[in-house]
Amino acid sequence: MSKISVLVVDDAAFIRDLVKKCLRNYFPGIRTEDAVNGKKAQAMLAKEAFDLVLCDWEMPEMSGLELLTWCREQDNLKTMPFVMVTSRGDKENVVQAIQAGVSGYVSKPFTNEQLLTKVKQALNKVGKLDALMSGAPTKMNSAFGNDSLSALTGGKAAVVAPAPAAAPSRGLLNTPPVKAPVAASAPASGRGQGQLRLPSGTQQCVIKALSIKEALLVVKRTDTLPQVLDSAVLDLEQGENAEIARLNGYLHAIVAYEPKPDSDWLQLTFRFVDQDAQKLDYISRLIARGTAQKHFVPGA
Q1: In the chain, what are the domain boundaries?
Q2: Could you report the per-residue pLDDT of 246-269, keeping only the tens digit for each?
Q3: What pTM does this model have?
Q4: Closest CA to 238 of 204, 273, 192
Q5: How far is the C-alpha of 217 from the C-alpha of 124, rounded, in Å?
Q6: Region for residue 122 given its phi and psi (left: phi exceeds 0; alpha: psi -120 to 50; beta: otherwise)
Q7: From CA 45, how far away is CA 33, in angstroms rounded?
Q8: pLDDT tens digit string along 115-128?
Q9: One Pfam family this chain carries (predicted)?
């Protein structure tokens, strides 16, 4: 029986490697190839056949949505399973992808189980699941969903109870303070606030420092501790129109923020993995327009 072949498309090498490793570990006979953007993927799809495409949305040169639209216009790719793996989890984005002919939707950050479930759902619809499952572990033989909106959005990570919001700041770009409920013991903010999405849930965070490669974040400690190398998405809100930038990355380091083992706060080094020029420009503008770094004072 021939191998199932999957094309992984993402501008971030870390995400591509994460997806390929997950697939290879669970499906020993699978063949994986990758592309850094939609344009490269388009060239590969024109030359060889793939059984499934796992594709990011925001990429340079050609976006995932543009690649999906092109695929559905090709006679030989109209029915090929195409799953979006993206930080764009808003309802309007999901609807837009469904209208373009997407087969499934996985929101970043994702767990291995969520990704594998969507892969099996997509291949089951075209009768190729048996070829994929030969030799695979049996612990994930779960029921398959349908084509409804709820099925496509079911890949979101379970959200744990949110941590107390960080203290009001001068805003990400020196805007007036945000009036929101604040924990009395939250650290004073440095360069703004954001929301960190992890496989284990979502937390509010305070941005202590920002560079073109990484952000230094402070989060409230919860019962579920984040893990080094966890993939994550940092959501930052900017401007009067409340534009949200979704920055993909991973946790490079985690330390106690306070010099004690029962520290209520954790300091996370969040490394960016996006190679999208628009996102890099966005980070550059934040750095240029932000104020000088301030020091955090626990309990302030």
Answers
A1: 5-152, 157-300
A2: 899 999 999 999 998 889 999 999
A3: 0.68
A4: 192
A5: 41
A6: alpha
A7: 11
A8: 999 999 999 999 88
A9: Response_reg
